[in-house]
Design brief:
Blueprint: H1 2-10, E1 15-16, H2 18-27, H3 32-39, H4 44-48, E2 67-68, H5 70-85, H6 93-102, H7 107-114, H8 119-131, H9 152-163, H10 165-171, H11 187-196, E3 199-201, E4 207-210, H12 213-221, E5 225-226, H13 237-242, H14 251-257, H15 266-275, H16 280-302, E6 306-308, H17 309-314, H18 316-326, H19 333-346, H20 353-376, H21 385-391, H22 401-414, H23 417-432, H24 434-442, H25 447-457, E7 463-468, E8 472-474, E9 477-479, E10 484-488, H26 489-492, H27 527-544, E11 549-550, E12 570-572
Parallel strand pairs: 1-2, 4-10
Antiparallel strand pairs: 3-4, 5-7, 6-12, 7-10, 8-9, 11-12
The protein binds protoporphyrin IX containing FE.
Residues 220, 259-260, 271, 322, 410-411, 414-415, 418-419, 422, 460-461, 464, 489, 516-518, 522, 524-526, 529-530 line the site of protoporphyrin IX containing FE.
């Protein structure tokens, strides 16, 4: 759509029409739409009576058209209906071409029909395109979803890979992220990939997977790999309104402002405001409170002889700490916990449509709740984190209310699911490697290096992603602009080139420069807090319950690919 607006701009028009949509698709040789045209024997230059090479993927966007005209809006709606009729989850360029062939009252539609591109032949070509394993990518740099979905650009191709799990299964001898065994044990697949194809382009989607430590490090540190390289190409506000993008799904806005999805310079400004609350001094003040919450959680279950380590400690501790830190009332924590679980689930690489829809609802509810809390909150420098952040609204370059809200939600969800899993995965690893648990019980001063090793050994965040704004080399391969790179942090942390004997849990391990918290400008803001919580919780468990053991060997792993953790961890305490 952006390419169509650019094309209209180049032709000196203020509104993009169907012809501009057609040119944008025909000129993108990689698009599914141009595949359909080719299959139906359509030569774009004949239809237009001129060459289409001027299309703007590379060209300078001389003033971009501001709106889509009525006919192109109608064609986009038709394309949406075509995608629905064909039971396709997303609207792509192929549906736009099919829609043009249906709109035979338009001049371009009539010409397409005359050259042999009819609704029937377009549909046949689309089916062939699917059957051939989608030989071209479905969306291009300038593509925007007609049906807004948060993070659609990142998640769409990944979901495609997962949907094609069975195909990958046979193609890659069961070496697929879609393999159901993957969440239970991703490490054998990581090893297989690292040894055979450490920088691997997926055969079906424009997604690259990195499994070597040095490559993941490069992805995180090299400023050419961005979170949001197409920010400047986003659709103009008027077009977003025309398409109702962002009006029916508030999370679209979230993508724009949450620091996790921003690049400099705005990222630097937003992060610096929140970083004020994460100084060693302010975190040090939290220590007694974290110790008290941990003791309270354990006192409740100490007499029972057993507990679910997740529900009784790993779950409540981080949510209480972060909600209290932000300044939300204690009685609301159960509600906040449910909300942030829903949001965290939608952040996963393979989140389902239902999870996305649930997150959309929760987003609205949280917004209302947040507005009420802010209204009642006592402002001032000595107030809770939220009150201090709100002060920045009046500073030059400070955050607007929407940014404060979105980043507070990020802190809530990023700040507890991950720490829950650090404590859960950590205790699981220690109990499965009994000698290490006993070592920690005997030598409690090892707690700091133990937590670092647990972060490395079974990282709570397994993946993160970036996109190059220009073709960029990594690990000897060139990644084209706009193709998604998934850095497997969990794989990097088991790279034998970096960590000798990487599959062994060794709580005395030296030189443990793991990537569990990332590195570079997006390095986890809450790393010190998470470390402190885990050290206190695991240290207290080792002190009070050295005989602790698992009471069931059956584990249910969370389904998402991004966050790794078990749902329950029943243990006997004595
Ligand atoms: C064991 C617990 C945690 C793990 C493993 C973890 C992991 C990560 C990772 C890998 C990133 C970088 C993502 C990227 O580069 O794309 C990140 C970023 C972030 N984390 Fe954490 N995190 C944890 C706990 C926390 C906590 C407790 C908080 C807050 C209270 C927090 C807040 C954030 C924020 C705000 C960012 C974004 C920073 C930025 O974009 O500049 N995290 N985290």
């Amino acid at each position: 759509m952006v390419a169509a607006l650019d094309e209209a701009g180049r032709q000196g028009r203020d509104a993009a029409g169907v012809e501009d949509l057609f040119v944008a698709i025909a000129a993108d040789r990689e698009s599914a739409g141009s595949y359909v045209l080719e299959q139906c024997g359509v030569e774009a230059s004949r239809i237009l009576g001129r060459d289409t090479n001027g299309n703007g993927h590379a060209g300078p966007p001389s003033p971009r058209a501001r709106i889509l005209d009525e006919s192109s809006l109608r064609v986009l709606r038709l394309a949406d209906a075509e995608a629905t009729r064909l039971k396709h989850e997303h609207v792509g360029t192929e549906h736009v071409i099919a829609a043009l062939s249906i709109a035979s009252d338009l001049e371009i539609g009539r010409k397409l029909n005359d050259t042999g591109l009819t609704p029937k032949s377009a549909e046949d070509a689309i089916q062939r395109w699917s059957a051939e394993g989608m030989p071209r990518r479905r969306d291009g740099i300038g593509w925007m979803p007609i049906r807004p979905k948060w993070l659609a650009r990142i998640l769409r191709p990944v979901r495609k890979v997962l949907r094609f799990g069975p195909l990958l299964w046979s193609l890659y001898a069961r070496k697929s992220l879609g393999n159901p065994g993957f969440v239970k044990n991703p490490y054998s697949l990581y090893q297989w990939l690292r040894e055979r194809e450490p920088v691997r382009r997926d055969p079906l989607a424009p997604v690259w997977i990195l499994t070597r430590y040095d490559d993941v490090m490069e992805m995180l540190k090299n400023p050419k790999f961005l979170k949001d390289p197409f920010g400047p190409q986003r659709l103009p506000k008027l077009v977003r309104e025309q398409l109702e993008v962002g009006l029916e799904d508030r999370r679209v806005e979230a993508e724009v402002v949450s620091m996790l999805f921003l690049d400099p310079p705005r990222h630097t400004q937003v992060r610096s405001v929140f970083a004020r609350a994460f100084t060693p001094a302010s975190l040090g003040q939290l220590r007694p409170r974290i110790e008290k919450v941990t003791r309270d959680c354990l006192d409740k279950v100490a007499g029972n002889g057993g507990m679910d380590l997740i529900a009784d400690l790993a779950y409540p501790l981080p949510v209480i700490v972060i909600a209290e830190m932000l300044g939300f009332p204690a009685e609301d924590y159960p509600r906040i916990k449910v909300w942030s679980d829903v949001l965290a689930a939608s952040l996963s690489l393979n989140a389902t449509g239902e999870q996305q829809a649930a997150a959309s609802l929760v987003w609205g509810e949280m917004h209302e709740y947040f507005d009420q809390v802010v209204l009642k909150m006592n402002r001032g420098k000595d107030g809770p984190l939220l009150a201090r952040i709100l002060e920045s609204e009046d500073e030059p370059g400070g955050l607007c209310r929407e940014e404060v809200f979105t980043n507070s939600v990020l802190l809530l969800s990023a700040g507890h699911e991950t720490t829950t899993n650090l404590i859960g995965n950590g205790i699981l690893a220690l109990l499965r490697n009994r000698d290490q648990w006993e070592l920690l019980c005997r030598e409690p001063e090892l707690i700091e290096s133990a937590v670092e090793e647990l972060l490395r050994y079974d990282s709570p965040v397994q993946w993160t992603s970036r996109l190059p704004a220009e073709p960029t080399e990594i690990g000897g391969k060139t990644i084209p602009a706009g193709e998604i790179i998934l850095g497997a942090v969990g794989a990097a942390n088991r790279d034998p080139e970096k960590f000798p004997d990487p599959d062994r849990l060794d709580i005395r391990r030296k030189e443990n420069r793991h990537l569990a918290f990332g590195i570079g400008i997006h390095y986890c803001l809450g790393a010190a807090l998470a470390r402190m919580e885990a050290q206190i919780a695991i240290g207290e468990l080792a002190r009070r319950f050295p005989k602790m053991r698992m009471s069931s060997k059956r584990l249910r792993w969370m389904k998402g690919l991004t966050f790794r953790g078990v749902r329950e961890l029943p243990v006997k305490l004595r």
